[in-house]
Design goal:
Strand content of chain B: 15-25%
Radius of gyration of chain A: 25 Å
Number of strands of chain A: 19
Mean pLDDT of chain A: 78
Number of strands of chain B: 8
Bound molecules: flavin-adenine dinucleotide, S-adenosylmethionine
Strand order of the largest sheet of chain B: 3-2-1-4-5-8-6-7
Helix content of chain A: 25-40%
Distance between the termini of chain A: 42 Å
Number of helices of chain A: 16
CATH topology of chain B: Rossmann fold
Structural class of chain A: alpha+beta
Family (chain A): Belongs to the UbiH/COQ6 family.
Number of domains of chain B: 1
Membrane topology (chain A): Peripheral membrane protein
EC number (chain A): 1.14.15.45, 1.14.15.46
Largest interface: A-B, 47 and 64 residues
Number of helices of chain B: 12
Protein name (chain A): Ubiquinone biosynthesis monooxygenase COQ6, mitochondrial
Oligomer: heterodimer
Cofactor (chain A): FAD
Strand content of chain A: 15-25%
Largest sheet of chain A: 9 strands, mixed
Low-confidence stretches of chain A: 5-26, 134-154, 335-348, 456-471, 485-489
Low-confidence stretches of chain B: 1-37, 174-179
CATH superfamily of chain A: FAD/NAD(P)-binding domain
Largest sheet of chain B: 8 strands, mixed
Radius of gyration of chain B: 18 Å
Number of domains of chain A: 1
CATH architecture of chain B: 3-Layer(aba) Sandwich
CATH class of chain B: Alpha Beta
Helix content of chain B: 40-55%
C-alpha cells in the first residue's frame, strides 16, 4: 500500500477538535458490559456473552451486592423451598450454553402434565405432553432440526422443576470458566454519572462510582438486580406500573404419600384467596407455592407442622360451597362440550395427599405485579425482575427473564458482528420491542387470571365456570410452556 | 499536500449539474463524460453539505447521520460476505473475522463505517475530500477507542480518489502497485459524485485483481423520489433539505453497466429496507429504494 503510507507520512496528525474540556478515560477501566445483579438472569447473560466467539474480547464485569458464596447443593441434600418451573425453551437455552448438564448432574425433575382446577366450580383442565404434540413438536423438530428428539429433551416432559439454588450453582460454575468475565462480590453501584446522557461526545461512556471506592466506565450497563432494581432507580427510568395483589406466597417442601403412579404432574388449584400449586420434586416430595391473603399466610407460617399439613390437604381436597346457579350452568356446559367433542371432559384426577413438611422449609414473601414501561435507555438495559415481575403462578417467572436474556443477547450479537457499539440505543430499542411484544400479553394474562380466580363473587365464578375458564386458566401457563419453546435461538 | 482544496475548483460544477438535472439521463452521462477532462469527480457543493460537526456525525439517536449508523447492521455483514464469503451472523468467527484484509472506504465522511470495519480486524483507509469530515473521523477515533490496535488499523486522509491515485503512481518503492486493496467501498457516496463513470473507474483502479468493489446507494425511482428525498428532507426532517439531488441517483442496472465498462462484474445486488420510525434496516429483494451492489475486479 504505497499510496497509503506515502499519504500518511505527508499528513501530520492534528486533532484540532479535541477540546480541552474532554476528560481522560485512560485511568478509568473501560468495560464493554457491566451486569449489576448475579441472580439467575444476570448470570445467564454473563454465560451467553462469555461463550459467544464474536464477543470473546469483550471485557465484562458482574457486580453482586451479596457477599455470600454461590450455593453448593449436593444431589442428596435437603431440597430448597425456592424452585422454578423451567419451560422447554429455557431448558434448550441452558443446553446450548452447556449449563444443563451441570443442572441435571445435581437434580431436576421433569413434569409431564399440568392439572389446573377450581375450588368454586367443578371445572378443571389438564394438559400433557400429548396435548401439545401438534404445536410443540412440529415446531421444536423444525427449529432444533430434530435435535430435541435425539437428546430426549421434549418428547417426555413439558418442562422441569429445578431449585433456584441448583440453577445458580450451575450458572456460577460456568461464569467462573469464562476468562473475560470479572466478578465483584459485595460491591454495588453508588450512583450513575449522567453527564454522558447530556454530552455524549465528550463523555462517550457511562461512568459509575462503585461502593468499593473505585470508578469504572462502560459501554453498556445491564440492570439484572431484581424487583427493587437500583439501576432502574438511579438510571432515571420512569417508575414501573405496579400494584400489590394483597397476597403473600408461602413456600415449603412437602413429603407426599407415594401413589401408584410416578409423581410427574404439576398441580394447581384456584382457591377463593389465591392459587395453591404443588410441583413435583421426587417420587415422594413436592414443592408448595401457596398464594393467599397476608393474614392467612402469617398464620400458615406460625402454625405447627401438623396443622400446616392439615391446612394444605384441606386446601387441595375440600369441597367449597358451589353456587347453585354456577353448578347448574356448568352442568349444561359439560353436556354441551361432551356432545361437541366426546372425550374432552377429563375425569378429574386427584393430587397426592401430603404426609409431612420438611423441617424448616417454610418461607413467605409478598406478591406483586410490576412492569417497567421502558426496558432501555441510552447505554442502559433492564432484564429479568428489574424490568418486570409477575405473580409466581407455578413458578414460571424466570422463563420470562431468560427470554429477555435471549433477546438482548441476539441484539448484542447483531451489533458485535457489525463492529458496532453495544450501548447504541437503536439496537437496545429493538431488544425492548421484541421482549415487550412477547412479555406483555403473557403478563397481562397472568394478571387477569389471578384477578378472575381470586374471587368467589357469583358473577365472576359463573363467568369462569362457563367454559371460558377452561382455556382462560390454562392459556398463560400453556403460552409460557409452548411459546417460550418456540423462540428462535 | 495534506488536503484537497475544495474551493479551488476551476469551474462551477454546481451550475453545470443544475442544468444537467433538467436533461435526460442519457445526455447527462455524455456531458459528464465530457467533464472528465476536468479530471475530478468531486462536486464541491456536494461535499460541503457534509461539513457536519462531531456531534452531528456521531449522534446515533437522531440527526442527519442516525440512519448511517444503523445502516452498519446491514452493510457491514455484506462487506464481510464480499471478503470472506459469509456474513457470519452467528459470530462464530470470533471478534476479528476481517483480520489481514485491507479496505479503502471512499467518501468515508465522519468514519461511521471505517470504525466498525476496524473493530472487525481489518486495516482501513478512509478518504474524503471534505477535510471537516476527516477531522471529525480522526478525532472520534482518538477520543473513543482506548485499545491502541484499532487506532493503528484505521487511518484517515483528506483527499479525493484522484489524489490518491496520483500519489500512488509516483513510485517510492519497488513493490508499489496501484491495485492495492482487498475491498474498495463507496457507501452512500455515488449519489453525490460529479462523474459516476470516472469515479467507478477510479474505484476499480484501487482494487486488487480478484478483489471487491462494493457500493450502497439510493435508486432513482418514483418511490425513492418521494420517500428518500421528499419524506426524509421535508416531512420527517431526518436529513437537511437539499441533501440529495434525485437526478444524481443511479439505478442498479446503470451501475451494473458502468462496472462492466471498468473490468468488473457484478456478483450480487440486494435491496436494503429502512424503517424511519424505528431506525432499523433490513435486507429485501426489492431494490427500489436503497441497494447494495458487490462487484469483483477481473
Ligand atoms: C422471595 C422471593 C421468592 C420467589 N420465589 C419464586 C418461586 O418460588 N418461583 C419462581 O419462579 N419465582 C420466584 N420468585 C421470582 C423469581 O425469583 C424471579 O423471577 C427470578 O429470580 C428473577 O431473577 P432475577 O435474576 O431477575 O432477579 P433476582 O433473582 O432477584 O436476582 C437479583 C440479584 O441481584 C442482586 N442485587 C440486588 N440489588 C443489587 C445491587 N444494587 N447491586 C448488586 N447486586 C444486586 C441480588 O443479590 C440478586 O442476586 C421469587 C422472588 C422472590 C423475591
Ligand atoms: C452520505 S456521506 C457518507 C459517509 C460514509 N460513507 C458513511 O456511509 O457513513 C457522503 C460522503 O461522500 C463524500 N463525497 C462526496 N463526493 C465525493 C467524491 N466525489 N469522492 C469522494 N467522496 C465524496 C462527502 O464528503 C460525504 O462525506
Amino acid at each position: 500500500m504505497a499510496s497509503l503510507m506515502k499519504l500518511l507520512q505527508k499528513q501530520p496528525h492534528s486533532f484540532s477538535l479535541l477540546s480541552s474540556t474532554m476528560r481522560s478515560y485512560s485511568n478509568e477501566p473501560l468495560y464493554d458490559l457491566v451486569i449489576v445483579g448475579g441472580g439467575m438472569v444476570g448470570q445467564a447473560l454473563a454465560v451467553c456473552v462469555g461463550q459467544t466467539p464474536a464477543m470473546s474480547n469483550a471485557r465484562v464485569l458482574l457486580l453482586e451486592s451479596s457477599t455470600e458464596a454461590p450455593p453448593t447443593t449436593s444431589p442428596n441434600q435437603h431440597y430448597s423451598n425456592r424452585v422454578c418451573a423451567l419451560s422447554l425453551g429455557s431448558v434448550h437455552f441452558f443446553k446450548s450454553y452447556g449449563v444443563w448438564p451441570l443442572i441435571t448432574s445435581i437434580r431436576a425433575k421433569p413434569f409431564k402434565k399440568i392439572h389446573v382446577w377450581d375450588a368454586c366450580s367443578p371445572s378443571s383442565i389438564g394438559f400433557s405432553v400429548d396435548d401439545l404434540s401438534d404445536s410443540l413438536y412440529s415446531i421444536s423438530s423444525e427449529q432444533y432440526t430434530g435435535q430435541s428428539h435425539e437428546e430426549g429433551l421434549s418428547h417426555d416432559a413439558l418442562g422441569y422443576i429445578v431449585e433456584n439454588d441448583v440453577i445458580l450453582q450451575a450458572l456460577s460454575n460456568k461464569v467462573n470458566e469464562e476468562s473475560n468475565i470479572e466478578i465483584k462480590r459485595g460491591v454495588t453501584l453508588k450512583s450513575i454519572d449522567h453527564t454522558q446522557m447530556k454530552d455524549s461526545i465528550n463523555n462517550p461512556w457511562l461512568s459509575l462510582p462503585l461502593s468499593d471506592g473505585t470508578c469504572i466506565s462502560m459501554k453498556l450497563l445491564v440492570g439484572a438486580d431484581g424487583v427493587k432494581s437500583r439501576v432502574r432507580k438511579l438510571g432515571g427510568f420512569q417508575d414501573p406500573v405496579n400494584w400489590n395483589y394483597d397476597q403473600s406466597a408461602v413456600v415449603a417442601t412437602l413429603d407426599i404419600e407415594e401413589g401408584m403412579s410416578e409423581n410427574t404432574v404439576a398441580w394447581q388449584r384456584f382457591l377463593p384467596d389465591g392459587p395453591i400449586a404443588l410441583l413435583p420434586l421426587t417420587d415422594d416430595k413436592c414443592s408448595l407455592v401457596w398464594s393467599t391473603v397476608p393474614s392467612h399466610a402469617e398464620q400458615l407460617m406460625k402454625m405447627s407442622p401438623e396443622d400446616f399439613v392439615a391446612s394444605v390437604n384441606t386446601a387441595l381436597f375440600a369441597e367449597f360451597p358451589q353456587d347453585q346457579l354456577v353448578s347448574s350452568a356448568n352442568e349444561v356446559l359439560r353436556n354441551a362440550i361432551s356432545i361437541v367433542s366426546p372425550g374432552s371432559v377429563s375425569v378429574r384426577q386427584l393430587p397426592p395427599t401430603i404426609k409431612d413438611i420438611e423441617g424448616e422449609s417454610r418461607g413467605m414473601f409478598p406478591l406483586g405485579f410490576s412492569h417497567s414501561p421502558h426496558y432501555v435507555k441510552q447505554r442502559i438495559a433492564l432484564i429479568g425482575d428489574a424490568a418486570h415481575r409477575v405473580h409466581p403462578l407455578a413458578g414460571l417467572g424466570v422463563n420470562i427473564g431468560l427470554g429477555d436474556v435471549i433477546y438482548l443477547h441476539e441484539e448484542l450479537l447483531k451489533t458485535s458482528t457489525a463492529g458496532g457499539d453495544w450501548g447504541n440505543i437503536t439496537s437496545l430499542l429493538s431488544y425492548e420491542r421484541e421482549s415487550q411484544r412477547l412479555n406483555m400479553p403473557i403478563m397481562a394474562a397472568i394478571d387477569g387470571l389471578q384477578r378472575l380466580f381470586s374471587t368467589s363473587l357469583t358473577p365472576f365464578v359463573a363467568l369462569r365456570s362457563l367454559g371460558l375458564q377452561l382455556t382462560a386458566a390454562a392459556q398463560p401457563i400453556k403460552d409460557i410452556i409452548v411459546n417460550y419453546a418456540q423462540r428462535k435461538y | 499536500m495534506a488536503t484537497y482544496d475544495v474551493t479551488a475548483s476551476p469551474i462551477k460544477i454546481n451550475d453545470v449539474t443544475k442544468i444537467m438535472g433538467k436533461i435526460s439521463l442519457f445526455r447527462k452521462i455524455n456531458i459528464l463524460s465530457f467533464l472528465r477532462r476536468l479530471n475530478s469527480t468531486v462536486d464541491s457543493t456536494e461535499t460541503e453539505k457534509f461539513s457536519l460537526s462531531l456531534k452531528e456525525w456521531w449522534d446515533d439517536r437522531k440527526g442527519p447521520a442516525a440512519a448511517l449508523h444503523s445502516m452498519n447492521t446491514v452493510r457491514v455483514p455484506l462487506i464481510k460476505e464480499a471478503l470472506i464469503g459469509t456474513r457470519d451472523e452467528a459470530g462464530e468467527l470470533g471478534p476479528h473475522p476481517l483480520k489481514g484484509f485491507s479496505i479503502l472506504d471512499v467518501g468515508c465522511g465522519g468514519g461511521i463505517l471505517c470504525e466498525s470495519l476496524g473493530e472487525l480486524g481489518s486495516d482501513v483507509l478512509g478518504i474524503d475530500p471534505n477535510p471537516v469530515a476527516i477531522n471529525v473521523a480522526t478525532t472520534h477515533l482518538m477520543l473513543t477507542k482506548n485499545s491502541s490496535d484499532i487506532k493503528d488499523r484505521v487511518k484517515y486522509q483528506s483527499c479525493s480518489l484522484e489524489d490518491l491515485i496520483k500519489a500512488d503512481s509516483e513510485p517510492i518503492d519497488t513493490d508499489s502497485s496501484s491495485e492495492d486493496f482487498d475491498c474498495v467501498v463507496a457507501s452512500e457516496v455515488l449519489e453525490h459524485v460529479a462523474d459516476v463513470d470516472m469515479f467507478v473507474h477510479q474505484l476499480s483502479q484501487m482494487a486488487k485483481p480478484g478483489g471487491s468493489v462494493v457500493f450502497s446507494t439510493i435508486n432513482r425511482t418514483i418511490p425513492s423520489l418521494f420517500l428518500a428525498k421528499m419524506a426524509a428532507e421535508y416531512i420527517f426532517n431526518i436529513l437537511p433539505r437539499g441533501t440529495h439531488d434525485w437526478n444524481k441517483f443511479v439505478t442498479p442496472e446503470e451501475l451494473d453497466e458502468i462496472v462492466k465498462r471498468h473490468s468488473m462484474s457484478t456478483v450480487s445486488v440486494i435491496g436494503l429496507g429502512y424503517n424511519p420510525l424505528t431506525n432499523v434496516w433490513n435486507y429485501q429483494s426489492d431494490t427500489n429504494m436503497n441497494y447494495f451492489l458487490h462487484a469483483i475486479k477481473q
